[in-house]
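My current task is to audit a protein record that another person submitted. I have pasted the whole thing underneath without changing anything:
***
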Amino acid sequence: MSMTRTGSLVALAARKELPLHQFTDAATVEWIKANRPDFPSVWPPPLSTGAKALVESAAVPVQWLAEPRLADSLHGHRHGLRTAVLAALLADRHGLDESDAAAAVIAAAVHDCQRHHDKDDPGHGGRAAIWLAANADLVWTHFGRTPNPGEVVKAATAARLHEVPYEAFSADDRADHARFARVCDLVKAADALDRYRLPKLSWWPDARRVREPAFEQLKPLAFDLVVTSETAFLAGASSVEAVRFAVAEKGLV
């Protein structure tokens, strides 16, 4: 996707003129590279067999998106697939059982599927949760699994709460989070780790906003997944091909 007529995303963000639909561009990717934080290049081990199987199915069909124009945008397929990869890594790190790992990766893959645009779009997590519950047979079959009510509720809750800051939780939010804290915290952290794609430094990953002890250790990988996949996309790869290339290039599969 080429630069817009009015400038790169980073220039538009500086002027507070970002459009509703935002697509990466070469100048913004170069800006991201130039602002690489001073952290060591430390990588986690490859994904486990179960995590690999989930990640292989984590590229969602464009038909699942509420707004198909977002398929290749900042909240589209590349973000969803990278978030699913990071969720799978965190699930491995914490030794989540099969059901919790599946719920986390599925929630990560679809957490933004009901967005209408790339700006704040309040309520998109709730819409994703409703869509996920209503389409559980379709989604779980896509992931090679049979849905069960507990797993569906777990994933839908994580999708709903991913956009709600902890300090803004209502009483109902706190009760739902308490039931599925491991999965909810993991999905929120995976989503936050992929914020290196955003065209403003103050929007990048911030450990204070999550509850994940491995957050800092995964930042270098999260950064390089963004840079490698965004570069591959601009070179002509599809969004899914670009992320899969980055995952392989980092030795995760």
Q: What stands out?
A: The mean pLDDT is 96. Residues 215-234 form the longest helix (20 residues). The two ends are 28 Å apart (CA to CA).
